Amino acid sequence: MFSHYNLARLSSRLFIPSRTWTPTLSSFSCGRRLASTATAAKPKVAEVAEEEASVRYDLTEKDVQRLNFQRNIGVSAHIDSGKTTLTERILFYTGRIKDIHEVRGRDNVGAKMDSMDLEREKGITIQSAATFCDWMTTDPITNETDKYAINIIDTPGHVDFTIEVERALRVLDGAILVLCAVAGVQSQTTTVDRQMRRYNVPRISFVNKMDRPGANPWRIVNQIRTKLRMPAAAVHVPIGVEDQFRGVVDLVHWRAIYNQGNKGIEVVYDEIPSDLLDLAKAKRQELVEQLAEVDEEIADLVLMDEAPTNVVLSNAIRRATIGLKFSPVFLGSAIKNTAVQPLLDGVCAYLPNPAETEVNAMDATKPASAPPVPLSPAADAPLVGLAFKLEEGRFGQLTYIRIYQGTLRKAQTIYNVRTGKKIKVPRLVRMHSDEMEDVESIGPGEICAMFGVECRSGDTFGDGGVNLTMTSMFVPEPVISLAIKANGIETPNFSRALNRFQKEDPTFRVHIDHESKETIISGMGELHLEIYVERMRREYNVDCVTGKPRVAFREAITARANFDFTHKKQTGGAGQYAKVIGYIEPILSQEEMQEVTSGKEAQTQVGAEGEEVKKDKEFINDVLGGSVPSNFIPAVEKGFYEALEKGTLSGNPITNCRLVLQDGGFHIVDSSELAFRLATIGAFREIYRSAAPVILEPIMKVEVVAPVEFQSQVIGGLNTRRGTIIDSEVRDDEFTCVAEVALNDMFGYSNQLRGSTQGKGEFSMEYKNHMPVLPNFQKDLEDAYKKTLPQAKK
Ligand SMILES: Nc1nc2c(ncn2[C@@H]2O[C@H](COP(=O)(O)OP(=O)(O)OP(=O)(O)O)[C@@H](O)[C@H]2O)c(=O)[nH]1
Q1: Whose CA is nearest to atom 32 of ligand 1?
Q2: Least C-beta-crowded within 10 Å: which of 30, 60, 181, 322?
Q3: 181 CA → ligand 1 middle, Å
Q4: Where does the record place the Tr-type G domain (predicted)?
């Protein structure tokens, strides 16, 4: 048996090809260093790592052999960069599909990974799709061929479906960041970059669309360095540009790579064309220099004026990539079937295997502050798996699960750690987009799906051996909402569909407005909600009428206010009596609040019990001496959270608020849970205005791309919408402008942009954060809300 940390040494003795690990002590120690870098954002890992080595389950030789040739990767990018087109090629070259079908292709089949009818009609990816394939790669140094098993998740690019990217990255070990060779780093690229950083996901970059007029890979490499602040260098030089693009120079192994045969299926290696030799030498030197900035071994060689060998270079790229310090940049054109296979070789060579990613869980039996428990991808260890995505399939609920530790078997009894419920796994499948393959068991480090298992997205499963729960993923707050009702008589399918979608997608929320009795759905954008309304019609046969989309405003207090409130009611029979004393205050400063809402830190987390823990709402019980009996404290807490549901300024939920209960009073007969709940709500409403509340609105980062001649119209249009221009870039005949605009000012923008650019402008927007509205607008919102209140209507 071998300890987890001995993996590197063991690998060297057993089977690891030279390109994946340098079998020396230095690679071992580097592995440790990288592990701690990779988990820098997670608490107390360093302390734990030292002690926990003995707690970790040992890996067997079989484990190591399997894990070394296993990769779990995601393909993420800005909308329309070519992720689905690229994944289609990957599936074709790995033999997973027999032919290539294009997104919006003339054959009307559509790409494999866009399996929903809606996706094929709209030509966009809505849900992430999982698949797996095997890739045979030949080591250019040893000439040995190895088979790698790759799980791939293709994620949507549109920001409205950002949760799909979020949950995919949560369970992946590495990613391909796709960029367009013309547009480069776009708004959604920065979002994906942030998400990759949040989950410590190493990435290789792929500059796609090298065949497009205006393709310029060097500008894109530069943008990765400056805009994403990620040290990067190309590992390829293009052979031919734009429509002449026909292959790449491999700078690491010093050779030319071309595609031949049907749809580029054959990879041909050749000498580097003589006219590219100088450029290739300069770019290899640039690669070495960039690596020297982040890797000691290469830095030492550079200092001694020595050139690294191909093996040394390749190992350094791997180390630095896994260490989240560097991104190698590959070039290609998915649509022209050029240089996709070298990217697959790059996935195997430079992205980590499941054992190289440090993963921690929380002990569900201990408080949240207890140190995390590191997991080990050993097949014989107790099972720990995370359900990261739910989907309604033809045969019931399909639950996607990533196994972190142990083995999941068909017919095995497993436990949902949150609910403690026992479940027998009825059916286990490996997913290939909408098709599936039945399997008997799934080992650690793999992704599969179970049928007929009731759970929530984010639940952890175990086999009873350990009681561990995985930490949560970031769930952004909804920015837009609309009222919805069935067209005609409401059937049970109406609520069935809404329940289903809420369970699948944590960014989709449903609530009933108690005053207007309307059902309100909220989400990440108009398209997001539109897709669900359409799915209700198609999948549940429910035609819906929707109201006008409304911005999801929020309220927040900005100052502390003390309360001393008595709730008293005497109406004949038993009375009601409760007294509460304490204060409310903001938890975070304005700046901190903006950080939280922009997702730099997880705002909504799932605690040990699986319940949502809102970091921006907190109740503290500071009562001493029993002035409020302990059995009434939960009622005070409940009342507080109830009061937060609806602020009295505009009727929107209140965030960033802490209530501290310090004192109170009770009556031996008349006090009850109801009385304390009502007393807290009363106290809160009474002093709310003294806590200087403000209304917050979602601010969006808007990116517009249009031909240069329309630049002034576009900027003028954004200015009239009170936008702040934060970046703009002019390329040959196109320009990009990035602005921050309040979502409330963005309604109707697509029509305006179409009109002012003769239909040639495009825009995308993503949620940035919530900010206080201007005082006059706050007054308008308050007045409008007052008119909707029952007393105003009388
Ligand atoms: N010129 C050129 N066009 C490409 C290339 N790859 C993809 N495209 C085109 O770009 C468009 C978008 O491609 P998709 O594969 O749907 O992009 P995506 O990133 O998956 O899109 P979403 O999932 O909706 O974000 C399609 O019209 C493709 O044909 C390429 O290498 N060169």
Answers
A1: 209
A2: 60
A3: 12
A4: 68-355
